[in-house]
Amino acid sequence: MAMIKLTKATVERLRAPDPSGKQTLYWAEGDYRGLGILVSGVAATKTWVCQAKLKSGKTRRVTIGPATVLMIEEAWQQARDALAEMYQGRDPKLSKQQRTNAAVTVREVFAAYLAASSNQRPKTREMYRYAADTHLAPWLDLPLRDVTHEMVEARFRAITADVAKRACAGQIKGGVNVDGRTTANGAMRLFRALWNHQAERDPSLPRNPTWVLRRQWHDIQRRSRRVESERLPDFYDAARRLPSEIQRDLVLFALFTGMREREAAGLTWSEVDLAQRVIRVPASRMKADREFVLPMSDVAHSLLVGRRAYGRDGDYVFPGHGALGYCQSFTFALKQIAEMTEIKISPHDLRRTFASVAAMSAISPLALKLLLAHSTKSDVTEGYELMSLSELQLNAQKVADKLKELCGIESLPEGVARMGA
Fold it and tell me: Are 378 and 278 part of one and the same domain?
């Protein structure tokens, strides 16, 4: 590839066909950079072309017209317009529709992805929005196709390092052993889904750039952390000594019911039937979008009776000072327990503790699924058809009895006031 100073004389002196018998490209020096003249190796033709690199890293060459028709300045004027388009990221080889697709940003694809996924749970959509706004933020206003595999690889590593650094500095609330690996995996899997979503609508989209992570995805082992049986007395004793009565009651309630953190923390008095000893959480608050019916064990009933004895302060069983009106988490309480006992667990680990004790209590797999609000086949009501509420009550009590045994509770105190005494 030769470089020449473009003048009328130099263009006229270029021999066509080229003596080499091969097509030869001459690029302009100086003020006409990006403009070239292509000399045929077999015909007497000389053609103006221009060439530039797109933001994606791909090189595109555009034919301007024959040198016998266009003078240098005329060719340069057309070349400048084409080069400007390419420098802005527009691919001249794409059709008008393809160019429209090429301009679609990551933000726009994300909005379309959410709109097309109307069956997603609100919590899932909230998680996706957080991942996009936080971890994909540098890309949101870029055309989707401009995100390269090099960018994916760099962003994946940056997310991992950033989350780990903030967790180490205590800037991330909640979680145990947070190191950024799960976050990085989740953010890049979301981006992979966005790319695939757009690829279904734009066949010209190149290969999904997340391919570069095929051997780099973080290996996340399924968590099995829980309070070990021999440590349950220490955990229970530390929970009873928590300075906040509401946090204390919430931790104990979660331990003896196995309910998820949000479902337990947001419990309302309208969902509690003390007379029938049943908790009924509506489908709108449940992960599986199905009503959850949980019989109370003696411990759960005593705790709720004790809380009610304090007086009903609002609609929530575990009231809080936040905007929602209830105590939204007991992660801080678990950190206080960890300081007293070195038992480091998350709220979900407490649910796993309940499940492991339930498995030791000789209850059926169906009863365990119902107590944990896990799906039984296609509809949780199918499980209740096989097990009555009274039968489930017996199973709930078996688990509570085993927990009391492991925690070293010799007799059931009356009400929550004595449980925390």
Answer: yes
Q: Which residue has the tokens 């060459």?
A: 61
The alpha-helical segments, DSSP class H, found in 241-344 are 245-257, 261-265, 298-309, 331-341
Which ranges in 88-226 belong to alpha helices (H)? 96-102, 106-116, 122-135, 149-168, 181-199
Residue 142 counted as domain residue: yes
Residue 167 has pLDDT above 80, yes or no: no
Task: Give yes or no: residues 113 and 184 share one domain.
Answer: yes
Residue 145 in tokens? 């196709």
Mean pLDDT across 43-51:
94
Looking at the structure, do residues 141 and 181 belong to the same domain, yes or no? yes
Percent of the chain surpassing pLDDT 70: 88
Same domain membership, residue 236 and residue 366: yes
Task: Assess whether 201 and 247 both reside in one domain.
Answer: no
Rounded CA-CA distance 68/14 in Å is 12
pLDDT above 90: percentage of residues in the chain: 56
pLDDT value of position 78: 92
Beta-strand pair 35-39/46-53: antiparallel
Token digits of residue 325? 């009106």
DSSP code of residue 49: E
Domain boundary among 35, 62, 93: 93
Kindly state the average pLDDT of the residues 293-319: 87
Length of the chain measured in residues: 421
Note every long-range contact of 266-275, with CB atoms under 8 Å and residues 24 or more positions apart, other chains counting. 266/316, 266/324, 266/326, 266/328, 267/316, 267/317, 267/318, 268/315, 268/316, 268/317, 269/308, 269/312, 269/315, 269/316, 269/317, 270/315, 272/304, 272/317, 274/301, 274/304, 274/305, 274/308
Residue 122 has pLDDT above 70, yes or no: yes
pLDDT at 273 over 90: yes
CATH number for the domain spanning 17: value is 3.30.160.390
Residue 316 lies in a domain: yes
What is the span of the domain harbouring residue 125?
Answer: 106-213
